[in-house]
C-alpha cells in the first residue's frame, strides 16, 4: 500500500492520510514492496534503484520461531530463537520520472529508505495458524528533539538497536505497552497505535502515528516490509542524503502466538531504534514485555472497537548489551 503524507497540512480520514498539498509531500509504501512503492514509482524501477544503497545497517533483535506450533501449557515462549536481524538501507537519487503521484516534478529524485527483517537459519515457513507478526513503524520522529541528547550518550559509530540514545526509557517502555494493548486485537489482527504521551516530545504526532504492517509469508520471504520516500529534491543533494542517513527509525515488532483454539496465547513486543548511519551490525537484547493471554474480557478504558484479554504480565526491561 502506498500513502502520501503532506509536509504541512494533513487530513486524517477513515485511517488513510490524504495530502492537502501533494507538491510538498513525503510518501511511504508498506507490506509487499513488489506491488507498491513511494510516490507511485513503478515497483520494478523503485526496487532496482533502491538496491544501490548508499549505506545500510542492521541489528540483532529478539525473535521467535514462526514455524513452531500453537502455544499451550503455562508459557508459549519456549520458541524464542536468536539471530533475527532488523535493518535499514538508504539509497540516493531514486528517480521520479515514472512516478504517478500528483504534483511532483518528474525531473526530481528522492532518497529512499527501506526497512527489512531477516530470519535466522532454521526458521522455516510461517505457520500462519500459530503465529502472526506485526511491525509498527513510527516515521515522524522529531529529530530536533532527539538530537539534543548529549553526544557522549550516543553509540560510538555503532547502531546497536537501543532506543536509549534517542528517547527516554519511559518512552521506550510505553511504546512496548501500546504495541500489545492497542496494536493487537483479541483475534491477533494488527492495528495502528497512537504515540504515547511520554513520547510526544520525540515524535511529530500531528503528522501521524504508528503504521502497523502485518508481515505475511511473502513479505517475510522478501524481507523488506516498509519504504519511505524523502521530499523530492535534485540529484546529489548531500544535505538531504545526510538527513536520510541520520534519521532514527523506531520499529515495534509484536510477535503473536495463538493457542490451538485459535485465541491469542501470548503477545510479545520489542521496540528497536535503528539508523542507517551506523557501522556494521550490533548485537542487542531489547527491552521487552511478555504478555500471556488468559480469560477474554471487555476493558472499559480500551478502544470501543476491541475486546481484550486479561493478561498476566512478566515484564522485563533489559538494557542493551553491545558485545
Shape descriptor: globular
Q: In the residues, how many domains can be counted?
A: 1
The percentage helix is 10-25%
Please trace the helix and strand order, writing H or E for each element.
EEEEHEEEEHHEHEHEEEEE
Low-confidence stretches: 6-24, 279-323
Separation, N- and C-terminal Cα atoms: 38 Å
Which structural category fits the helices and strands? mainly beta
3D structure, described in words:
Keywords: Signal. The chain has 323 residues and is mainly β. 12% of the residues lie in helices and 36% in strands. The chain has one domain (2-316). Strands 1-4-10-7-6-5-13 form a seven-stranded mixed β-sheet. A hairpin with a 5-residue loop joins strand 11 (249-258) and strand 12 (264-274).
Layout of SSEs?
Layout: E1 2-6, E2 10-13, E3 16-19, E4 25-30, H1 43-50, E5 55-64, E6 80-95, E7 109-118, E8 131-137, H2 143-146, H3 169-181, E9 211-214, H4 217-222, E10 224-229, H5 238-246, E11 249-258, E12 264-274, E13 281-283, E14 288-297, E15 308-316
Parallel strand pairs: 5-13
Antiparallel strand pairs: 1-4, 2-3, 4-10, 5-6, 6-7, 7-10, 8-9, 8-11, 11-12, 12-14, 14-15
Summarize the structure.
12% of the residues lie in helices and 36% in strands. The chain is mostly beta strands and 323 residues long.
